[in-house]
Model the fold of this input.
Amino acid sequence: MKVKILGAHQGESDTIRFMSLMLDGRLVIDAGGLTGALSLDEQMGVDAALITHQHHDHIKDLPGFIHNRWQEKGLDLYCTDHTRGVLQAHMFNDVTWPSMTHSVTRHPLIFHSAHPGEAFDLLGYDVLPVEMSHTVPTVGYYITCGDVRLFYTADTRATGAANWSHIRPDLLLAETTMSSEYEETASRFGHMTPLSLGNELRAFYEKQDYFPRTICVHINPHHEARICEEIAALGRELGANIELGYEGMEIEV
Done:
C-alpha cells in the first residue's frame, strides 16, 4: 500500500494544505487539500473517497473535485449519515453548489453510508469505520489490504474512543494539532497534542505490545516547530518511530 499525504495541516497557504490522504492513487480519505495537490489526470484516477466528518478543513475541495470529473467519471463517497446530511444541506444543495446527484448529471456523486463498527469492502480494501471522540460525529478509518494495515484517527481527542484491542496498524496516522503547551485548549476543541498522543501510544502498547510507525498530521502551522520538537522527544522516550507528516510525503506500508 502506498500512502501519499496530499494535505497535512490545519491551515492553508501557498506551501501547506488542509487534510487529505491518498492510497495507491485510487482512494482518498478526506478532501481538505485534494484538488490543489493533484493534476486533472491524477484526479481522474481516484475511484472513491472516505470522509471522516463535516468540518471545512476535511471537505473543502469536494465541490471542485467532483466538478472537475462530472463529464467523465462520477464519485463513490463514503461517510456517516450525519456527515451526508451536512454535505447535502450546506454544500451540495443547489444553492452554494449543484447537488451533483441528479439524474441530469452525467456522472453523479453517489453517497454510501459508513456505519461505525461495520466493515465493508472497497476497491479491494477492507474498511472499518471507527467512532472517534471529537466535537461533531466523526469516524477514523482502519484499512486493511492483504497483510498491510493502516489507521487514520481523523480529528479526535481519542480518550478511549479507539478500541486498541481490535486495531493493530502497521502505520498510524494520528492528528496532533497543537503543541502540548496548549493541552487544555486542544482538549476543549477535541484535538490531540504530543502529550495526549503519548498517552494514547502508551495505552496502545499495553494492549498490543508494540508501537506502530506513527505519522503526525493535522498540524496547526503556528505550532509546527514546537510539535516537531515534542514528538522527537516523545519518540526518544518511548523508543518509537514518530514523524511529522508533510505535503507530498509518500509512505510505503
Notes: Residues 194-208 form the longest helix (15 residues). The radius of gyration is 17 Å.
